[in-house]
Amino acid sequence: MFEIVGADGHWQGEVWNRRKNGEIYPEWLTISSVRDGNGNATHYIGTFTDISRIKESEIQLEHLAHHDPLTDLPNRLLLLSRLQHAIGRARRDGTKGAILFLDLDRFKNVNDSLGHLAGDELLQLVAQRYLARLRDTDTLCRHGGDEFTVLLENLREPEHAADVARSLIEELRAPFVLSDGHEVYIGTSIGVSVFPDDSENPVRIISNADTAMYQAKKSGRNIFQFYTAGLTEAANQRVALEASIRHGLRRNEFVLHYQPLVSMTDLRMTGVEALVRWQRPDGEIVPPMQFIPLAEETGLIVPLGEFVLQSACAQMKLWLDAGAPLGIMAVNLSAYQFRQADLRQRIQAILDETGLPPHYLELEITESVLMECSEDVERALWGLKFLGVRLAIDDFGTGYSSLAYLKRFPIDKLKIDKGFVQDIPNDPADMQIVAAVVGLSKNLNLEVVAEGIETEAQLAFLRQEGCDYGQGYLFSRPVPSVDLTALMNSDRHLCEF
Ligand code: C2E
Ligand code: MG
Ligand code: MG
Questions:
Q1: Beta strand residue intervals within 94-186, DSSP E
Q2: How many domains in the chain?
Q3: Most buried of the four, 18, 19, 106, 448, by CB within 10 Å?
Q4: 34 and 81 inside one domain
Q5: Cβ distance 232 to 448 under 8 Å?
C-alpha cells in the first residue's frame, strides 16, 4: 500500500480494521499524500467508509442466488457447481458418485386440497426428514416444485446409492403432521444416475436421473430406478440376497467344510481349515465368495463369523476327543470381524464354551487387515495372541506384503496365495517368489504353507524349496466333517509320492 502511495501519490481499496471495542470490520479506505515543494511527502490524508453493511448484503445476495428461499437448501445452480467438482474428484480418485432425483408422489393433491401454505410447510418438513437421514458430505438440493436432488460422493459400489434411495423412501412412510393439525401421507419416486459411468456432464447426469425418476413413477410409486437398467436389477438382487442370508442364518443353512493341511515332510494331515458353505434348501451349495462380501457390508458377517468359530471349535474338540492326530483348526476372520471391539472376548467365550484349548485354533487374517490403522491392529493382534491362539496371514503376496509388519506383529504363519502356486512349474517368476517367501519365513522363524496345490509337479517344487505345509485339491478338496473323519480314519498318506 505504501509503495503505491509513494509512487502514485494515492491508494484506495478494502482493508480490515479494528473498532475500539475490538470488533474487526471491513472498510473502504482512500489515502492521498500531501507533498511539499520538493515533492517529499509531508502528510497523508486518509478517508474511509465502513462497508460491513454492504459486505453483509453481498453475502446475503450470494446466498439467495444459490439457495432456495423456502427450505434454505442449495438450489440447482449450486448443485451444478458442486456436481462439476464432484465429477472431477471422482475422475481423479477413481471413485464413483450419484445423483438421486426425487419427486414427491401426489404432492399436487396436498396443494389443491389444503392450499399452498400447507404445501410449503410440507416441503419444509420433507427437507428436514431427508436432511436427518443424509450424511454431512451429501448435498440435498431443492430442484424446484416438489423435486429434490441428492448428490452422493465416494460410493464404493454404485449399488450403495440404492441403499440411500431406499432409506429416503422409507423416511417418508410415517405421516407428516402440519401445523393446522392435518395428517398427510406422501411418497416419493427416485431416479438415480451414477457418474462418471453414465456421463461426465453435470447437466446430462441430472437429466439422466430425471429420466430414471419418470421410469420409477411409471412402474409404480415409492420406488427407485437407476438410469442404467442393469443396476436396478443388481440392487434388487442384493436386497434379496441379504434377506436370504438372514433367513439362512436363522434356518441353519450354513455349514462348514474342512480341507486338510498337510505336512510336507510325511504328507500326513496335521490340521484342517474350516471353509464356510451355504447349503440352500434346493440343495445348491453356494461358495463363500458369493455371500461373504455382502455379509461384510451388511454386518451379517458378525453372526455368521460367530457361527463359523463356534462350529469349528466344537468340531475340533470332537475330533480331538476321538483321538484324531490334528494340531490345527484354521478359521478365516474377515476384516470386518477383526474390527469388532469385543472380538477377543467373543473368541475367549467360544473357547470356554467348547472347551477347545486355544493353541489348536489358528486365525487366518488377510494382509489388508494389517495395512489399516496400524496401532489398533497391533493391539488387537496382541490381544488375540494373549488368548493363546495362533495367527496366520492368508493369501500372502496379494496385498502389500510389508516386511515391517511381519517383524512387528505376533504372527506364526504365512499362507502363500494359490495364485503363485498355480503356474508352477511354468512361470519362473512365480517360482522365484514362492522360493523367496519360503526363505523369508525361515529367516523370520515363521511357518509357511502353500495353498492351492493341484499337481505333483507343484508339490515336488514346494518340498524341494522347504515349504513346511501344503493345502490343495491334490490332497483333498474341502469336504463335510463326516467325509473328513473318514479320510482321517483311512490313516494313509494323503498323496502317494
Ligand atoms: P482362503 O481362506 O484362501 O481359502 C482357500 C480357498 O482356496 C478355498 O476356497 C478353497 O476351497 C480353495 N482351494 C483349496 N485348495 C485349492 C486348490 O487346489 N485349487 C484351487 N483352485 N482352489 C483351492 P473357498 O472355500 O471358496 O473360499 C474362498 C475364500 O472365502 C477363502 O479363501 C476365505 O477368504 C473366504 N472364506 C471361506 N470361509 C470363510 C469364513 O468362514 N469366514 C470368512 N471370513 N471368510 C471365509
Ligand atoms: Mg483361509
Ligand atoms: Mg488363502
A1: 96-105, 139-144, 147-155, 176-177, 183-184
A2: 3
A3: 448
A4: no
A5: no
Question: Which residue, by CA, sits nearest to atom 19 of ligand 1?
Answer: 452
Q: Are 337 and 295 in contact (CB under 8 A)?
A: no
Over the stretch 271-315, which tens digit does the pLDDT of each residue have?
A: 999 999 999 989 899 999 999 988 987 889 999 999 999 999 999
User: DSSP string of 50-74?
Assistant: E-HHHHHHHHHHHHHHHB-TTT--B
In a domain, 247, yes or no: no
Q: Is residue 494 part of a domain?
A: no
Same structural domain, 74 and 158? yes
| Residues 285 and 237 occupy one common structural domain | no
Q: What is the pLDDT of residue 366?
A: 87
Q: Is residue 417 part of a domain?
A: yes
Q: Give the burial string for 4-22 (b: 16+ CB within 10 Å, else e).
A: ebeeeeebbeeeeeeeeee
Give yes or no: residues 155 and 71 share one domain.
Answer: yes
**Residue for cell digits 426428514?**
129
Question: Does 311 contact ligand 1 (Cβ within 6 A)?
Answer: no
Res 361 pLDDT > 90? yes
What's the domain range around 310? Answer: 252-489
Q: Which of 451, 453, 494 to mutate to test the pocket of ligand 1 (most atoms within 8 A of CB)?
A: 451
pLDDT in tens, 159-212: 889 999 999 999 999 999 999 898 999 999 999 999 999 899 999 999 999 999
One domain for residues 318 and 352: yes
- Ligand 2 mean position to 363 CA, how many Å? 9
Tens digits of residue pLDDT in 2-22: 899 988 999 999 999 999 999
Q: What is the mean pLDDT of residues 42-59?
A: 92
> Would you say the CB of residue 418 lies under 6 angstroms from ligand 1?
yes
- Among 185, 217, 242, the domain-final residue is 242
Ligand 1 touching residue 293 (CB < 6 A): no
Residue nearest to atom 20 of ligand 1 (CA): 452
pLDDT exceeds cutoff 60 at 373: no
The pTM (predicted TM-score) of the whole model is 0.69
Task: Give me the residues near ligand 3 (ion), CB cutoff below 5 Å.
Answer: 394-395, 451
Specify whether 32 is located in the same domain as 130.
no
